[in-house]
Every structure is written in structure tokens, then in C-alpha cells.
## 1
Amino acid sequence: MKAIIQTSGALLAEEVETADSLLARLKGLLGRDSLPQGHALWLRPCNGIHTFGMRFPIDVVVLDRIMKVSAIHHNVQPNRMTRLYPSGCSVLELPSGTVHKAGLVLEDTLVIVP
């Protein structure tokens, strides 16, 4: 169990699953019917994602090596893909609407608390 907190103090997710092996990153959220509110999937290393085969939309946050937000994609629908971000080191996948609700913006820094 981990929490992700942005620099403003807003809590983005209480439960964070880490996908840091090749197999875990390839599977990602495939096969799931949803990503519950308060949950996230943290893919690392990763600098862009696709939603081919997924069943629900997600918010996508691309992070650089110091956990600063490099890109935000709101409400990414199934069967889409983001571009690759050279500065991206990891990607956070969140339930659709989470980023807007939390007020996350480019250049914010995230902290993952064990």
C-alpha cells in the first residue's frame, strides 16, 4: 500500500500497484473491468502507454526522473495511445477524472509514500 501525494498536498491515490517487470508492464490494466477510485497503477520504467484492449478510460500522468509531471492525458479512451516522452521515466494510470479533481498540473511533483 502506498499513497501518491502531489506537492500541493492533494492525495491522488491511496492504493498504488507497481508494475516494474516487463510482464507486469505488458499486462498493465488489461483484463480488468475498472480501476477503482483511490487506486493507481505505476508503470516504471515507462515513457508512454496504449489502451488497446482495455475496457475503460483512464487518466495518464507521465513523470520524469525526479517525479515531476511531464505530461497529462485526461480521459484516455480504450484503443488509443499516447506519444512517447523522452523525459518520461514512469507513468501513473489513474481512474478517469482523478487528475482534474485533484488539480494536478504540469511541473507538479509527486511523492510516493510507503
Note: The beta strands are 3-6, 11-13, 15-19, 39-43, 58-63, 69-76, 90-95, 110-113.
## 2
Amino acid sequence: MRWTEGDVEANGIRLHYHRTGTGKVPVVCAHGITDNGRCWSGVAQRLADRFDLVLVDARGHGRSEAPEEGYARAVHAADHAGLIRALGLDRPIFIGHSMGAATGIAVAAEYPDCVRALVVEDPPIREPQAARSPARQETARHRTANIEQRKLVSLEDLKATGREKHPEMTEPDLQAWTQSKYEVSPNVGKWTPGPKPDWFELLARIGCPTLLMTGNATHGAIVTRATAGRMLDALQDAQEKNFELAGHCIRYHCFEAFMTGLNEFLTKRGFG
């Protein structure tokens, strides 16, 4: 695979990206918190012969700029919409995991001209009564400390931790996941969500085809069966692929099944 990389100015900051693929239809991949764009390497390798993939480092992650503040969901959405426009991408397919899935939902709702189809891997949408208990809430100080402490772990030990947590992770993704923990800025730990968005109002505004990829809450997935049902009811044109054996990081837990579900959606919708 031939990779290129570069930077763009988007929404007032510098964003870094890697790009690969020979296809005409662009695909933007948005990662979860503390990961980086290269954590989509396994997916990129499988799709590069059919699509033009852009793997984005979100602000504060990878090699992108890391301002001291500005990590709210709406800001991430403006960043990614700005990148899409700066690169002249023609309505890409947007694939996002966790934080990146929240970004994708916001981009599809707020910047519909920027997205032709949306794929969201376990977005951070909870029912109000299922919100985290105060004991589980991380403070900004704790998040920052966790980011800094990981940087002190040796490369070998951190990679072993990743392999233990995600035994089915592809080797390219494991390498990227390990490196991402050294690259993420402690400023990301200062993130505060602000007012909770009305997710279902945002979802109702999304008109493009959408694939909701969900795991099993007993294994750590965020989206429950009840929440998935509400999301599908809100979306105008959507389908779900559920992975009973997976937790929050679906493609890390069951990569081959993830790719099968993704390819079925892309083929069914006529994207390749």
C-alpha cells in the first residue's frame, strides 16, 4: 500500500492525516479518544483497492495540533468538516469509532454536504438513566494523569497490554494503538462534554445511509439494545450490525466480522 501524509488548516488549527487508496470514493476515518488515525490501518489495508481513505488525527492526537482547550464534540465536528473541505473531498463516507462516531453524527447532521454515508462503531450514546455513576466519572485531572502515566510505560509493555486487551487486533492496528498512547496530548484529558447533546434530535436530521455497529453491553459496549432501537427509529435511512461477542472496540475484538459487516453495507448501498 502506498501511503501519503500531510497537514491541513481546518477550523483554525493544523490537522494531520494519512491517506492511501486508489478508489474514487473518499472515506474519512475518525478514531476514538487517545487513539490516532493510523489505528484504522487494518481497515485501510482492506479497502485501499476500492476507496480513497483519509485517516485523520483528531486535535490533540497523533501529529495534529494540540491546543489547550477546544475538545468539545461540536469543535471536533467543525475540525473534520474543515478537513473535508480543505482536501476537496467529494462527500466522503464517514467512518467513526466512539469519540469519532460522535464526531461523525455531528458532521452528518450539521454539515450534510460533507457526508454521503455514515458508519458509527459504538458511539457514546447512553440512555439518561444509564449515565455513569459519580464514582465512575473521571475528572479532568484523572484523565490527564492517565494519559501522562501511559507515556512512562515501555513500548514492549504497552504493546503487550494492547495485545492482552484486544487479542484479535491486527498487527498494523496494534502498532498504531501503541504509538498513539505516546502521541496523545495531556490537553485531551481536559476535555469536558459541556451540555449533553440531544443525540436523537441530531440523528433525526441525518438523511444519508447509516450503518450502526453495536457490541454487547455486558462486554463493555456503550450502546444498549434499547438505545440501538431508539437510534434506528430516529435515523431516516439506517441499518444495524450487532456483534454479540464484542465490547466497545468492535473492530479490535472481531476484525473479520467487522469487515464483513462493513463490506456488506458498502456493497448493498452501491459504494463498492
Note: The beta strands are 3-10, 13-20, 25-30, 51-56, 93-97, 117-121, 210-214, 238-242.
## 3
Amino acid sequence: MRIAHGVTTLSALALVAVGGCATVEGLYGKSSSDIPFILRPPTSESRILEVQGAGVQIYACSQKAGQVATYEWTLSAPDAQLKDASGHVVGRHFAGPTWQFDDGSTVIADVTARVDSPTKSIPWLLLTTRRTTGSGKLAATGSVLRLHTVGGVAPAEGCDAANAGKEVRVPYSATYEFYGTRL
């Protein structure tokens, strides 16, 4: 039985033993926050800021690697606006994955861990910074969390030889939390 991507029942029980949680809800961190245990950033980092992302996940129909007659939707890139708590656009999120703020700072990160969304949306993610640019708000980012996702899942059908190369844009939203050291 799989509880979350990459987490089997036995490894979930190990997390329970280590984390002191006795339920699946414990995996999602209900005791202190809603961040799943395996997605928590390093304890040496603190949350720098939080934004809301809204836009699309872009998928392309392509031949499945190593399988001649099988096709699948593959994520090409996100394309989203980032808004602060007041609803003002402060940046954008695009391929890389990259987050770019209007102050000129940018974070490019790699997925470190993922957990299936409790709402059947795109997964929740922990990403580790590969590179930052600029001296703005994102300059000290070490980790990025994608949480509270809505939508964004690849279509279940419609990808076949006749649609090879076709792109679809699936609406989504998410909360992005940036962790690191404060400048």
C-alpha cells in the first residue's frame, strides 16, 4: 500500500516511530502544522516569505521513453503569477522550476521530496535551491515548499499518436513558502 509518492506503509510506520505520530494525518503534520514530515525544510532554515501561485501547468503529449506505441502527458513547465497576502502580483513562476520576483531576485530549485496532495491535485513538494540571482527577497532562499495545491493534474486521456506534440494548459494554484537565512 502506498500512502504518498515514495512512502510505503513500512516507511510511513518508521516515520511514525521517529516523529511520534500514530496516523496518516501525522504524515501531513497535523500536530504542529500542515507540512508533511518528509517535506519539512532543514531546521537551520526559517520561513522568509509566502506567496500564492495561480496559473497553469503545461503538459506536452509525447512518446513514452522506450515504448514505441505508448504516449503520455509530460510536464513541460508551470506558468503562474505569484501574489503576496494583499493580492498584489510580486513575481512569476516558470520553467526551471524558477521563481522570479519583481525585485530582480530569482530562485531555481530541484525537487528533493514529494507527497501526494490530499485533494487529488498536483503533489506537494520540497525543493532545494540550485541557484539564486539578484539581491532581493529570494537571495537567501535554501528551500522552497509547494503546498495546498488545487488542480494542475495532467489529463487522463487524449494523448496518443494523433496528438503527439500537442500541449494542454491545466489551471492550478498553490502556496509557495521560501525558507532560508534572513539577510
Note: The mean pLDDT is 84.
## 4
Amino acid sequence: MNLKKLYALVTVESFVHVKEFYCEHFGFSVSMESPGYLHLSGEGHAELAFMIQDQDAHEAFRGKGLTVCLEVADVDAEAARLTKAKVPVVVPLRDNPWGDRSIILRDPVGVHVYVYQCKSK
């Protein structure tokens, strides 16, 4: 396999809140938008996509079982910024036994956003 790209595609009922959430809080920008599809691009190779539920699409995501992971340089600073912005926190900032420090947040449709920093060795 010669994989060129991988991104999550989440079926939603509306783009309004997810577009605002990822652009405002995580620096994503709209790389493509149509009435039924929204594609966001972030720093590096970060990408997320959303599509509107219709008769041809999968069932809309219902807020369980999906986590988007974002590795950052300074998770403490990001946690402070996102908490100040009142982004809903699922799991507060903590050190994990598997070797990173993280905070878990929730986006407007219930996707968990795992923001983390690998610990130095």
C-alpha cells in the first residue's frame, strides 16, 4: 500500500458549530466546503472532514467512540488557553502512565479531542 493521506470523516447534522470550534480553537482553516461536505486543514498534515447526513451518507455521529488526537509542543499552555475559552473538558490535564501529558476535551458534536505532549526521555 502506498498510503498518501488519512483523515477522519465525521457525519454530522450541521457544520456550523464544528467549523467554528476547530477553526477558532485549533487553527484549522476551510480547505473545501460545499452544501454537504466540509474539509478542514491544520498545521502539518492535520486534516478533518465532515459531511451532512442524507439518504446516501452514514448515520450521523452520536457523540460516542471517536477521539481526535492532537500532539502539541506545550500541552500545559494549550490546556490553559482552551480551558479559559470554556471548551468542555472531559478529562483534566494529567500525566499518563504510557508516557504523555494530556487533556481530553469535547467538540460540539461529542467527538473527544485528546490534546497531548510526549514526555521527554
Note: The chain has two helices and eight strands.
